[in-house]
Amino acid sequence: MVLDARAAAVQRPGWWGELLLGLGLFGIYLLVEAFPLPGREPRAHANGEALLAFERWMHLDFELPVNLWLAEQGWIRVFANYEYAITYIASAIILLIWVHARHPVHYRSVRNSFVWLNLFALACFWLYPVAPPRMLEGAGFVDTVRLGHTFLSWGSPALQGANQLAAMPSLHVGWALWVSVVLARIRGGWAVQIVSAVHVAITFAVIIATGNHYWIDAAAAVVFIGAATWIAQVARPVDRVPASDTFFLHVETPAYPQHVGGLIMLDTTANPAGPTREWVQQAIRDKLPEMPRYAQRLSDYSPWRRQHWVPHPDIDWDWHVPDFDLTRPDGTPGGMGELHKLVARFQSEPLPRDRPLWRFAVVRGVEENTAAVISLVHHAVADGIGTISLMLELFDSPSLLDGLNETRRPNALQKAAAGAVGLAQLATDGRPKTRLPAGDPPDRRYATLQIPLDDVRELARKHGVRVTDLLLGGVAGALRRVAVAPLPESMLTSVTLMAAEPRPGAEGNVTAAVMVDIPLGDMPEAERLKRIARATKRLRTGTRVVASRFVQHTLAGLMPAFFHRWFARTVYNERFFNGTVSNMPGAAWQVDFRDFPLRTAFAIIPLAPGTPFTIGVLGWYGSFSMSATVDATLVDSVDGFLTEFRAVLAELA
């Protein structure tokens, strides 16, 4: 799930609808021209004379000398005429297309401000027509556009019927300044600001020099833009947290925080100093337009309505991007063990809800030529897939979601049929016969393991099973060998699977969980693996996944907030499953964080309330990158657990 203040997790509006909206605006323009108020032309000239007289009274009537100077120029006059006729339209259209394609979360607000700007201007054209300086008799202005027969203006025969009594406000300056305002809000940066300022300045000079506007028209455009932007901001729909994301807000407790993330290992050979906090902070600042949730927090909780996202402009960068140095007093690196302890500490600390729900810790002094970053977001912002996608977004890497979007999905009829079957299956699925021992609060232990991905795939092919089956078998065998308390004959494990199309910006939860009964009894590991493969085979039809998604997203969305909270806390705990296992795709290509190549990434998955373990695997650039979070009440040595996991695979080989 993910980041764009990249404000609401919304879908792009369709092109046809936007084109129809544009045609509707043009239709209103034609109506204003076709049905003017009585006496429009004399009133327009009188209003123009009044504006010019006001400027003369203020000794700011500089339009005439500028206009007469331009009329004597050659190519400069032609350039100004065509800049007047084309640039303001082209820049506005290009900006709308760019925001629609690259920043869909901003698009509705941007488009709405543009619509309001034009509606206000059209109302002014109708109620307060103003003749431009070039049309005032005896004022001495030269109509450079008409004399130059400028194409795409009233200087060409095709557009001679355009409304020319519409000097107030100047939409040329209005549209150019609107483009500048939008770019400033979405992209920022001095280069963008300078280019935008130059564009506005040239447009202002051109409208004056061509005799088409008074400077007061440009000043009025600023007021119109302010009003349009304010209304678009105030009137935008509330960005509610979807039910499938709210679920993880409801189940969270102080003992069981529900943030997910990634532990990213960086190669610092080329730059031994490693990434600095300031450098990482700036990298995230530069990406905030693409990661909106990083600049938003939750609204206050109410039992009567779902929470929504609200802007949080005052980001505490030192808290969100902390810096750690694990170097020992003797100057040697702290090692992976210390890094794992730091991750476990982060897992135990809830993210405060009065600020954006993310952290990105910079860790140096891990090992020689090795640094790390710990990326965390709340499960309400993103799931495991979304978290990895957000990291790749920050690293300017190809999106992980591009490949997932190519995955074939069932159509509506297939979903309905699968959902009906899946609901019946979920209703008949059992509960754990025995709960695994867990502390309250849990004493978390975190560790990681890397195995060549090709070796794991080859071993799975040898036994005719899937990699996830092999993972489940290894987890069961290792638990049996290292658990400090007696284990039941089987455990019900929550297995994470893809369940929905990813949303724009990788936001939200697009995965769902299905339950697999895993044998824990005394048996050969090959036999355990066969039983697991038989148990998971029935899950590959996808019916349970569709049904789970339907319950989490659709049915839950119909529940009142207080009932949804009760439902979530009832079904997501140790009474319904014993632990969590997730096997998700990672980047299959080399990823770099500026000067630092990524060696691999490990998942950070929260413990569900009352459960003592979570296992996460990322298939990352040739590596089977496994992480384990266990409660010491069940397993006192997480490193010993991973050692036995590897031993189980060795036996199966």
What key phrases describe this protein's structure?
alpha+beta, 6-stranded mixed beta sheet, transmembrane helix, Aur1/Ipt1, membrane
**What is the CA–CA distance across the termini?**
37 Å
Query: Helicity range of the residues?
Result: 40-55%
Q: Any idea what the shape is?
A: elongated
As residue ranges, the low-confidence spans are 1-10, 403-408, 414-428, 499-510
Strand order of the largest sheet: 4-5-6-1-12-11
The count of strands amounts to 14
> Mind telling me the C-alpha Rg?
31 Å
Count every helix, treating DSSP H or I runs of 4 or more residues as helices.
Answer: 22
Structure description:
The protein is an alpha+beta fold. Among the domains are: 220 residues; 143 residues, 2-Layer Sandwich (Chloramphenicol Acetyltransferase), CATH 3.30.559. The chain is 48% helix and 15% strand. A 6-stranded mixed sheet has the order 4-5-6-1-12-11, sandwiched between helices. Strand 4, helix 13 and strand 5 form a beta-alpha-beta unit. Helix 4 packs across helix 5, helix 7 packs across helix 9 and helix 10 packs across helix 21. It is elongated. It starts with 14 loop residues before the first helix and ends with a helix.
Summarize the helices and strands and which ones pair or pack.
Layout: H1 15-34, H2 40-57, H3 63-71, H4 75-102, H5 104-127, H6 144-147, H7 171-186, H8 190-209, H9 215-234, H10 243-251, E1 259-267, H11 277-287, E2 296-298, E3 309-311, H12 317-320, E4 323-325, H13 336-348, E5 358-367, E6 370-378, H14 384-394, H15 400-405, H16 412-428, E7 444-452, H17 453-463, H18 467-482, E8 490-498, E9 511-519, H19 525-537, H20 543-558, H21 561-571, E10 579-585, E11 592-593, E12 596-604, E13 613-620, E14 623-631, H22 638-652
